[in-house]
């Protein structure tokens, strides 16, 4: 189950052409790539899908950030970082595994891994802890705004 599966109204998003949101997303993706080089991170910027995703492809283990989440006006760097860490946690978190995708960690385990391990690896302990707290709040607010039952909290 994805984090979210809604198409966001265009007015809730920064325009595709806006420079700072894409620069922020690219900077975060580069940080994750540097710390987890065995995973492939990509970005589907022009879509309005409110989502991030962990999946297996012929290229290996992948994490994808969609534009509806990356360009959302109510998401900060913390929310994006938490979403990326959560998806990374599906690949690296270990057991318990997802009930439908046996090669991925469960939603709960991906959350734990993101908050306790992943964000600290990427940002250090102090910033990682702050990003975990603020990121979850941002993502939770989005799920309530769109009346989405989120799989990650």
Helix content: 40-55%
Low-pLDDT windows of residues? none
Total number of helices: 5
Q: Give the terminus-to-terminus CA distance.
A: 12 Å
SSE run:
HEEEHHHH
Label the structural class. mainly alpha
The strands making up the biggest β-sheet line up spatially as 1-3-2
Question: What is the strand content?
Answer: 5-15%
pLDDT averaged over residues? 92
Biggest pleated sheet: 3 strands, mixed
Radius of gyration: 14 Å
- State the total count of DSSP E strands: 3
**Tally of distinct domains:** 1
Shape: globular
How does this structure look, described?
This protein is mostly helical and 153 residues long. The chain has one domain. Helix content is 49%, strand content 12%. The chain has 5 helices and 3 strands. It has helices at residues 19-35, 67-70, 77-92, 107-123, 125-145; strands at residues 40-44, 52-57, 60-66. It has a 3-stranded mixed sheet. Strand 2 (52-57) and strand 3 form a beta hairpin. Helix 1 runs parallel beside helix 3 (77-92), helix 3 packs across helix 4 (107-123) and helix 3 packs across helix 5 (125-145). The chain is globular. The relative contact order is 0.17.
